[in-house]
Design a protein that fits this description.
The complex is a heterotrimer. By secondary structure, chain A is an all-alpha fold. Chain A contains eleven helices and no strands. Chain A has one domain: MetI-like (MetI-like fold, Orthogonal Bundle). Chain B contains 14 helices and no strands. The longest helix of chain B is centred in the first third of the chain and has 34 residues. Classes of the chains: A mainly alpha, B mainly alpha, C alpha+beta. The interface between A and B is large, with 99 and 92 residues.
Chain lengths: 256, 287, 365
């Protein structure tokens, strides 16, 4: 049969479409001129200004702090949830599953405003803590799903084998289950971390004065501040995210 | 394994109940509260706040939100389907790389990408100058700050959400069925429509929902590139929350949004048992 | 001396049915004992009851005279070779085999010695550093056996260990299993649905159906003297005729009246009387087929028949012949050079015969 070129053409155009803004961004970040339309010469000036900017560093610190803590919390909670869902069936788990699944398909803005109302009603001050809570909340769902998939592929005969060879519950958990779940845990943790670092909408709703994260900083610079450093920042963020995700890919394609 | 069910379930169940279920219920609660003009909330309950949402101004925004999301979904499916097909049919050596190519921009910071579009569409930007030079647009038209800008950026942002679920279904599709169809006399087009598409319909449906629902709730995109003529429900909710500090009204609007989203959402819940389809297309950017 | 393993009235339900239904028997020390039966017969459940992964609803299980029914699996001195081996993928072969000893906190010197001994037993001395996914199926099975045996269990449980291997490998591994059993000398409890496997290596076999033990015996006993129609047809193939005792010839022999056949002589080991109903089982290899009518001989049953199907298999041929309403299966070994003879074909008129002592009467059940 003659192969129609149509799908391939669409694919090529589609990929081009996906990459043009990114290429533009990279170019502009090295552009001397302030305005994107005019090429002022290759320069690292924006990168220099970026590093000199105090607010950027503060925002980065906040983002990392929240990222790490939310990742830890959500990985632990999410893994426990996945274990419960795999081990037990019944009404409780059905309810449990619903609670984990719905946040995944709900628009961010709904989650953002609901948490804001929650904190306002409790007169809880908005700040790093509320951001931490919010991030952990939506990360739990993702981690649980990753671990669920891993657990479905888990060979439970290995647990029986460990029991057969004399291991008690504690030994079985640490010597057999944990080592085998570690790649999955890392994948889940990496996912949670990337989601947290990059989150904007939900963070926007629950942040307070002095608790700026990187995405919030980017946003406000976009709207009100100097956009040129943001170009440089964006490229750096891209680079870091690529590296982190490349690592994640390596871990998930490795044999369990 | 001696883990007790309640002990294992409690951490996640408790956390999500406190920080997801209750806040969601709060949105319901606030929507029925009256507000005063100074950003305060009065005691008691009323249906007035809800009624306010139904005024004609909102109708414009609602309509715009619906048709923007609709067209975005349609275009994403139209581009995503052939792309997913190509990747699924690709030689194994290229398959991984192609997927990575699709996923990489998608997994980079979405704020950054939206910002990149803002720069691209800038009135003094490179693209505009090129288009003017090609006589496609006039010098005065702004590419930015209108519904069309929102549309383009939404399509850009949500395209991977469409490609990945369709690809996932296409990867499981048995392409020998197409050969069987040709063998029985079908043309390429007939085989595609009568055999391939029904075979991946679950993936297409997932893609539809995965684009439509986030699109309906979009906030950042219309906020950054939409201007006043590109406002969507998301903007309005944020506006009421931060600019006018009118939480009851924001809640009412949110309730409205939730209601619109509820229908496709409950469809997914009924259809997908294990929920891993969302995870396959899951990504960093949550918009 | 106490038996190695005893089941006393053991029952275990699975939903609405009894997976294991009031099973009682014992296994001798050092025996290679097999549990044989079709899927769903309860053999795996019984094995898991011994391992401790399931608890019986009723009854007791005794190991060397001690009641182990309530003891959890990690405290029983039995070890299991799992169907898909269940080797720990994150540990190399050495650590896999050493696992049980390390769990028991044995000193590392002892562990090293024992693991080396085991690797030698399974002939994989220099492969301890490898990971499970780097070795073949047959090697995995050997490592699984080593991992179990190193703990010196009183009984080794094997759950269809050859099921995941291809035919040729299965045959080789079966022999290796037999050799290891001879060397190590402990009781083996072997579960399989493959009767040739069971017959090849077992000292005794328990044939199970629907949760119950139908018969226990040596392979020869089960093959030649099955106690029921189920066992007769499950192990090997046979021809079954339903008949009635019509006359006693002597103390040992009787005439049977079978519909559609001339009177059949049979050895009367069950001491049946006239008019008793009976099932007669005659194995295909015990029946002879020839073109010309055989001479009449005492204690020989000869019958005319028409050939219905022929399958040539090189060293032997399977025939199916029809006599009235009966379809009789015959296996004929070719112990002489075949090409000189005219082949027997579909539709040919032939004669079949067998010796009266070669038929076996089954209990009618």
């Amino acid at each position: 049969m003659k192969r129609s070129r149509f799908p391939q053409i669409v694919t090529l155009l589609g990929l081009l479409f996906l990459y043009i803004p990114i290429l533009m961004l990279v170019l502009t970040s090295f552009n001397e001129s302030k305005y994107g339309g005019v090429w002022g010469g290759f320069s690292l000036i924006w990168y220099k200004k970026l590093f000199q900017n105090e607010d950027v560093w503060k925002a980065l610190r906040n983002s990392l702090f929240i990222g790490v803590s939310a990742t830890l919390a959500s990985t632990v909670i999410g893994t426990l949830a996945a274990l419960a869902l795999t081990k037990y069936k019944g009404f409780l788990q059905k309810l449990h599953y619903g609670m984990i699944y719905v946040p995944l398909i709900m628009p961010d803005i709904l989650m953002g405003i609901s948490l804001l109302l929650f904190f306002v009603a409790l007169s809880f001050p908005l700040g790093l803590t509320t951001i931490f809570i919010a991030h952990t909340t939506f990360c739990i769902s993702y981690v649980t799903m990753v671990m669920l998939a891993r657990l479905q592929q888990f060979d439970w005969a290995l647990i029986e084998a460990a029991e057969d060879l004399g291991a008690d519950t504690w030994q079985m958990f640490w010597k057999v289950m944990m080592p085998l779940l570690t790649p999955g845990l890392l994948a889940g943790a990496l996912l949670a971390f990337t989601l947290s670092i990059d989150d904007f909408v939900i963070t926007f709703f629950v942040s307070g004065p002095g608790s700026t994260t990187l995405p919030l900083f980017v946003y406000s610079s976009l709207k009100f501040g100097s956009p040129s450093i943001i170009n440089a920042l964006s490229v750096l963020v891209l680079l870091i995210t690529f590296t982190v995700l490349w690592l994640s890919q390596r871990l998930t394609t490795e044999k369990p | 394994m001696k883990f007790k069910e309640t002990a294992l379930t409690f951490p996640s169940f408790g956390w999500l109940f406190l920080f997801f279920v209750i806040p969601t219920l709060m949105v319901f609660a606030f929507a029925f509260k009256p507000y005063d003009d100074f950003g305060g909330i009065e005691p008691g309950w009323t249906l007035n706040t809800l009624y306010e949402v139904l005024n004609p101004d909102f109708a414009v925004i609602l309509w715009r939100t619906l048709w923007l999301s609709g067209i975005t979904t349609a275009v994403c499916l139209a581009i995503g389907l052939p792309m997913a097909y190509v990747i699924a049919r690709a030689h194994p050596r290229y398959k991984q790389s192609l997927l990575l190519l699709v996923v990489i921009p998608f997994w980079s910071s979405f704020l950054v990408r939206i910002f990149a579009w803002k720069a691209l569409l800038h009135p003094e930007g490179f693209l505009k100058q090129a288009l003017v030079a090609l006589h496609i647009v006039q010098a005065e038209t702004t590419l930015l700050y209108n519904a069309w800008a929102v549309l383009v950026v939404m399509i850009y942002t949500y395209l991977p959400f469409a490609i990945l679920p369709i690809y996932s279904a296409a990867a499981k599709f048995n392409f020998q069925l197409l050969e069987a169809a040709y063998d029985l006399g079908a043309s390429r087009w007939e085989a595609f429509v009568k055999v391939f598409m029904p075979g991946i319909q679950k993936g297409v449906f997932t893609a539809l929902l995965m684009v439509f629902i986030p699109a309906i709730g979009a906030y950042v995109i219309p906020d950054v590139v939409g201007g006043t003529n590109g406002e969507m429900i998301g903007n309005k909710i944020a506006q009421f929350t931060f600019t006018e500090r009118n939480l009851p009204l924001a809640s009412s609007l949110s309730l409205f949004l939730a209601a619109i989203v509820l229908i496709p959402m409950s469809t997914i819940m009924i259809l997908s048992g294990s929920g891993t389809s969302r995870l396959e297309a899951t990504g960093v950017s949550k918009e | 001396m106490a038996k190695s393993l005893e089941f006393e009235g053991v029952s275990k339900p699975y939903g609405p049915v009894q997976a294991v239904n009031n099973v009682s028997f014992s296994v001798e020390r050092g025996e290679f004992f097999s549990l044989l039966g079709p899927s769903g017969c309860g053999k795996t459940t019984l094995l898991r009851l011994v391992a401790g992964f399931e608890k019986p609803e009723k009854g007791r299980i005794l190991l060397d005279g001690h009641d182990i029914t309530q003891i959890p699996p990690n405290k029983r001195s039995v070890n299991t070779v799992f169907q898909n081996y269940a080797l720990f993928p994150h540990l190399n072969l050495w650590d896999n085999i050493a696992f049980g000893l390390r769990i028991a906190h044995r000193p590392e010197d002892e562990v090293r010695q024992e693991v080396q001994r085991m690797l030698k037993l399974i002939q994989m001395e220099d492969q301890g550093h490898k990971l499970p996914d780097q070795i073949s199926g047959g090697q995995k099975q050997r490592v699984a056996i080593a991992r179990a045996l190193i703990n010196r269990p009183r009984i080794l449980l094997l759950d269809e260990p050859l099921a995941a291997l291809d035919l040729k490998l299965r045959q080789r591994m079966l022999l290796e299993l037999d050799l290891i059993h001879d060397e190590v000398g402990i009781t083996f409890l072997f579960v399989t649905h493959d009767q040739t496997e069971a017959m090849a290596v077992s000292d005794r076999i328990a044939v199970m159906e629907k949760g119950q033990v139908r018969q226990i015996g040596t392979p020869v006993e089960l093959y030649e003297a099955p106690k029921s129609r189920f066992v007769a047809t499950f192990i090997g193939d046979t021809n079954i005729f339903e008949g009635v005792v019509s006359e006693k010839i002597s103390t040992d022999h009787i005439w049977l009246r079978i519909e559609g056949l001339p009177p059949i002589q049979c050895y009367n080991d069950k001491q049946l009387n006239v008019d008793d109903a009976v099932h007669l089982s005659v194995r295909p290899e015990k029946i002879h087929l020839m073109r010309d009518m055989p001479e009449e001989k005492p204690k020989h049953n000869r019958l005319p028949a028409i050939v219905e199907d022929v399958i040539y298999k090189g060293d032997h041929t399977n025939f199916w012949v029809r006599i009235d309403g009966h379809r009789v299966a015959i296996i004929q070994q070719h112990s002489r050079f075949l090409l000189d003879e005219k082949p027997i074909r579909w539709g040919d008129q032939v004669w079949i015969w067998w010796h009266a002592d070669d038929g076996y009467m089954l209990e009618r059940s």
